[in-house]
Design goal:
Blueprint lengths: L1 H6 L5 E3 L5 E3 L9 E10 L2 E11 L4 E5 L6 H8 L7 E6 L2 E2 L5 H7 L1 E3 L12 H8 L8 H6 L2 H18 L17 H14 L4 E5 L7 H18 L2 E5 L3 H7 L2 E6 L2 E6 L1 H5 L2 H8 L6
Parallel strand pairs: 5-10, 5-11, 8-9, 9-10
Antiparallel strand pairs: 1-2, 3-4, 3-6, 6-7, 11-12
Helix pairs in contact: 4-6, 4-7, 6-7
Length: 285
Amino acid sequence: MADRVQRRPATKLVPVPSTNKIPERDVDKTPILECRHLGIDFGGLTAVNEFNMAIGRTEIAGLIGPNGAGKTTVFNLLTKVYQPTRGTILLDGLDTHSMNSVQVNRAGIARTFQNIRLFGNLSVEDNVKVGLHNQVRYGMFQGVCRLPGYWRGERVAHERAMELLSIFDMQDLADHQAGSLPYGAQRRLEIVRALATNPSLLLLDEPAAGMNPSETAELMDNIVKIRDTFHIAVLLIEHDMSLVMGICEGICVLNFGEIIAKGTPEEIKNDPQVIEAYLGKKREV
C-alpha cells in the first residue's frame, strides 16, 4: 500500500475566484462543483455551517472528519436529499437551488451510499441498466408492444452495461443475482450503477467500507481509472486514510459541521487542528 501512496503525483492547488482551490490543470475551466456558505439546520441544531468548497473538473477530492462531523449530510445536500437552509450549490456553474434529487442526477451528480442500496433480487446487469434509465430512447408503448425501437434500445443498454461492468472485470457476473455477490463486489456494482447515469461528478460515500487491504488497493486503482477514463471529478468520504492520502488531490476536513482545514494531503496530515480532531487534545500535566 505504501508504494501506491508514493505513486500519487504531487498536485498543486491554486485559488479560483473565491476562497476555494482546485488543481492547477483545471484552473482554466469552471469548477464542476462549488459550494458557497452552505448550511442546514434541523430545528435548533446546526448540522452543517459555512461549508465552502470547489472541485475541479478532473479532481479526486476527499471529505474527511470524525464520525458525526456532517460528511454524509453534505452529500445529502449536494444530491438534494436535504434542501439547504442557506447557501448556494453551483454544478458546472448552474445554481441547483430549484432542483430535486432526480434533476440533480440528470444534471450530472451521481452517488453511492454508506449502506449498499442495490436491487438484490435483480441481476447484476439489470442493476446497471437501472442507472441507464435517463438514456432510454424508447417509449412505454414501444416497450409494451415490443416494437423494433424497444429491441434496439435494449441492445444498446446491454452493450453499455457490459462495457461499464468490464471496468471492474465484472462482465462475467452479469447474469448473477446482485444480492448473492460478495460484499466487495456489491460495493463495486453500486459504483458501476452510479457511473451508468453518465455523471460529471461522482460522490462515493465510504467506498472502501468492509473491504480487505487487497480490495482497497484495487479500489484505489479503479477510482483513478474512472477519473481518467470518463474525465470526471470524484468526491469521496472515507475513513481509510491510506486510501485518502494515496489518491486525493485536495482534502476538506469537517468537524462538528464546520470546515477546519483544506489543502493537499501533505498539508492536511500535518495540520494541528486535524490531528486534534482525530486524536483529541493532549492533556496538560
